[in-house]
Amino acid sequence: MTQSRPAVHPVDPPPLTAAAPPRVRLKDVQGMPGTGGGLVLRLLQFIFAVISLSVMATTSDFSSVTAFCYLVAAVGLQSLWSLILAIADIYALLVKRSFRNTVAVSIFTIGDGITSTVTFAAACASAGITVLIGNDLHYCNLNPCSRFMAATAMAFLSWFAASPSFILNFWSFASE
Amino acid sequence: MTQSRPAVHPVDPPPLTAAAPPRVRLKDVQGMPGTGGGLVLRLLQFIFAVISLSVMATTSDFSSVTAFCYLVAAVGLQSLWSLILAIADIYALLVKRSFRNTVAVSIFTIGDGITSTVTFAAACASAGITVLIGNDLHYCNLNPCSRFMAATAMAFLSWFAASPSFILNFWSFASE
């Protein structure tokens, strides 16, 4: 029992497998719902859609052209949708939370896809008719061409502001 | 020197950290580039775009309307793009590989986004003018309305076939 004690200094075992690294997620890119950039995009969509709606609705004879009626309906839908999501963004900013659950992001993505497609289709149809009246037939003395052009341009701007929202939402949904 | 040798049986160290688990990837969903479904989508886009192009280009007076010229250019671009990607799909199917590198998928996504947006815009503009001529002004006795409608409908069908390609490519790109 007086044997020397073994003088082995075992190497510390390597640490156990660390927890799996957290999934890489897109950070809160400005422009996503619940961020300041997202709110700015929503407000731009809303403002451009409302300007387009009011300019087109105050022309005297928009109701005689199907595409212009469709434009009024489309930018009306776009302005409603953008207003609702702007309110949701303001709420999210006030409580300092961001929308991180899949159901909300999927609803936002689908809604953004539908409204931006409808707005873009209406803007294209109006642009086709405005160019037909103005450039091809030269009827601008009979029609308020400048108002048609302004309403169409505002609808396109609303769509431009809606596209980043849709793409960022879709990206965030796909990378969940 | 006759002391007993230490009889330590060290515990095997735990295995080193296993390789990180492979990233979860969307499997080869039918419709992605390099799959049979993707090839079918490309061929549908190509066929509808070519029908739209030939129907519109054989009307006598399409060149007097800007939107119809734009439709011809847009479905021409769509048919070229779809043909090139159909050939790439056929090659990928023959060598039994799928497109899995980020550069190819990003080029496909951007190209699909541009061509499908251009086709959709042209189809909407043509639809607006066709409805204006047919329903609002009742000029169908003077114009080949049925040909305009057929070309517009084919352009919309080409866009319908292009949308799944774009969405699946974008999804695959975002979840890389």
UniProtKB/TrEMBL annotation, chains A, B:
Q: Segment Disordered: which positions? A: 1-20
Q: How does it sit in the membrane?
A: Multi-pass membrane protein
* Similarity annotation: Belongs to the Casparian strip membrane proteins (CASP) family.
The UniProt keywords, alphabetically, are: Cell membrane, Membrane, Transmembrane, Transmembrane helix
Please give the name of this protein.
CASP-like protein
User: What InterPro entries does the database record attribute to this sequence?
Assistant: CASP_dom, CASPL-5
Where is this protein chiefly located? membrane
On whether Membrane is a keyword of this UniProt record, the answer is yes
Annotated membrane-spanning segments are: 39-58, 70-95, 107-133, 153-174
Give compartment(s).
Cell membrane
Enumerate the spans annotated as Casparian strip membrane protein domain: 33-161
Q: What GO CC terms are in its UniProt record?
A: plasma membrane
| Quaternary structure and interacting proteins, as annotated | Homodimer and heterodimers.
**Pfam families recorded for this chain?**
CASP_dom
